[in-house]
Amino acid sequence: MQQPQLNGIKTHSRLERKYGFYELYVKRLMDIICSLAAIIVFSWLYLIIAVLVRVKLGSPVLFKQPRPGKIDPKTGREKIFFMYKFRSMSNERDENGNLLPDDIRLGKFGRALRATSLDELPEAFNILKGDMSIIGPRPQLVRDMVFMTDEQRMRHTAKPGLSGLAQTRGRNALSWDAKLATDLEYIENISFLGDVKIIINTVKQVFFKERGIEGGTVDEVDITDDLGDYLLKVGRVSKKEYDAKQAEARELLGV
Predict the structure, then answer these.
(1) Does residue 122 register a pLDDT over 80?
(2) Higher pLDDT pick, 91 / 25
(3) Which residue of 18, 157, 176, 216 pairs with 212 in a disulfide if CB–CB is 3.0 to 4.6 A?
(4) Coil, strand, or helix at residue 9?
């Protein structure tokens, strides 16, 4: 029997998406109110961090990167949008003009921004615009998306979030498989109380340094492998498949 289709993505019977009243009518209203309030109330903090980033890392102050968003029902494809963050890496280069590895360019200041999640404050504008939500699967890279299975790409039937269920279970400490499985678990059970619980646990993680609140591990890392690099490293894709997927990602980005 042919698998059912949802917005151009193959689905599995256990993952057929049901959009409840909260997700359809309440979640967006909450996103608008909360993101607008955060921008207004914390405008002073935005200014302070912008000045610090400019002094310590130079310009530009903001880092923007294309990320896959929610699947557009008109095209059946993920909408690609620019996600904004405060810069956390320098532009240090080697003698040949090539950027140094990420772990070198992410200095003490950048690590502090990431540890406190202050680098993600500009995403409030993405939420206000409608590309993101307060809670949802975290937006991954386009080059990660192309390596996801049809089942894993079901995560894109919900808007990506500033925080999400996977972030309360260990953030970067989770393996790729666990992270994507957690995203699917979230979209199957979206609710107001569930989102409130994730917000509370996220605040605990940021301000009280509690890691893995939802049962995850505690050994977080600052830099993680891209999904494609991970799959190649563990032998789950061949070099030929890897190169083809990377080319697909570049085509989607028009580079």
Answers:
(1) yes
(2) 25
(3) 216
(4) strand
Q: What is the pLDDT of residue 241?
A: 97
Q: SS in 3 state form for the chain?
A: CCCCEECCEECCHHHCCCCCHHHHHHHHHHHHHHHHHHHHHCHHHHHHHHHHHHHHHCCCCEEEEEEEEEEECCCCEEEEEEEEEECCCCCCECCCCCECCHHHHCCHHHHHHHHHCHHHCCHHHHHHHCCCEEECCCCCCHHHHCCCCCCHHHHHHCCCEEECHHHHHCHHHCCHHHHHHHHHHHHHCCCHHHHHHHHHHHHHHHHHCCCCCCCCCCCCCCCCCCHHHHHHHCCCCCHHHHHHHHHHHHHHHCC
By DSSP bridging, strand 9-10 and strand 5-6 are antiparallel
* Residue 200 CB neighbour total at 10 angstroms: 12
138: nearest Cα among 117, 168, 167: 167
Q: For residue 159, what pLDDT is reported? A: 96
The pLDDT tens digits for 31-47 are: 999 999 999 999 999 99
Query: What is the count of structural domains for the chain?
Result: 1
Tokens standing for residue 88: 């956390």
pLDDT at residue 178 greater than cutoff 70: yes
pLDDT digits (tens, 9 = 90+) for 150-169: 999 999 999 999 999 998 98
Which tokens is 190 given? 């979206």
User: What residue numbers bound the domain in which 17 lies?
Assistant: 5-253
Give the separation between CA 252 and CA 45, rounded to whole angstroms.
35
Taking a C-beta distance cutoff of 8 angstroms, is the pair 81, 67 a contact?
yes
In angstroms, how far is CA 210 from the centroid of its own chain? Answer: 20
pLDDT of the residue at 172? 74
